[in-house]
Amino acid sequence: MEITIDGKKRISAHFDGFEVKTDLSAEHQGENTAPSPYDLFLASMGCCAGIFIKNYCDQRNLSAEGIKLTQNVEWSEEDGRIGKIITQIFVPKDFPESHDAGLIRVTNYCKVKKQLHPDIEAEVSIVRI
């Protein structure tokens, strides 16, 4: 992976033929042309959980259509780090409730999430839409 400094607060990562651009908000002296590195970190965790949910559904011949996740962060007032990550898995009304625990379980398999400090609380729930 190669990281380039592209001007002002714009930084890019180049790997495997991909380019991932980042920037900071104007509030942080950036131009807000791309997500911040921290936002990409959080997005990668949510996308990783999504992959595990999709694989869970595929292995059980369940449709993943209509499933979405939201992820919110509560910050620690002590040191400004993540204190808690709240993930909600939205599933269609007719998604079998017998798989709720399985979906919650597999979100914790995410390798990105496993890099977090063990003191960070994680809350995962199912919401029927």
- What is the makeup of the main sheet? 3 strands, antiparallel
Shape: globular
Number of strands: 6
- Give the helix proportion (percent range): 10-25%
Radius of gyration: 17 Å
Strand-pairing-aware structural class: alpha+beta
Query: Whole-Å distance between the termini?
Result: 40 Å
Structure description:
The protein is an alpha+beta fold and 129 residues long. Helix content is 24%, strand content 33%. The protein has helices spanning 37-59, 100-107, and strands at residues 2-7, 10-15, 18-22, 68-75, 82-91, 121-128. Strands 1-2-3 form a 3-stranded antiparallel β-sheet, with no helix packed on it. A hairpin with a 2-residue loop joins β2 (10-15) and β3 (18-22). α1 (37-59) crosses α2 (100-107). The chain starts with a strand and ends with a strand. The model has no long low-confidence stretch (mean pLDDT 95).
Fold topology:
Elements: E1 2-7, E2 10-15, E3 18-22, H1 37-59, E4 68-75, E5 82-91, H2 100-107, E6 121-128
Parallel strand pairs: 5-6
Antiparallel strand pairs: 1-2, 2-3, 4-5
Helix pairs in contact: 1-2
Task: Please supply descriptive tags for the structure shown above.
2 helices, three-stranded antiparallel β-sheet, alpha+beta, 6 strands, 33% strand, three-stranded mixed β-sheet, 129 residues, single chain
Give a quick summary of the entry.
With 129 residues, the protein is α+β, with helices and mostly antiparallel strands. It contains two helices and six strands; from the N terminus they run E-E-E-H-E-E-H-E.
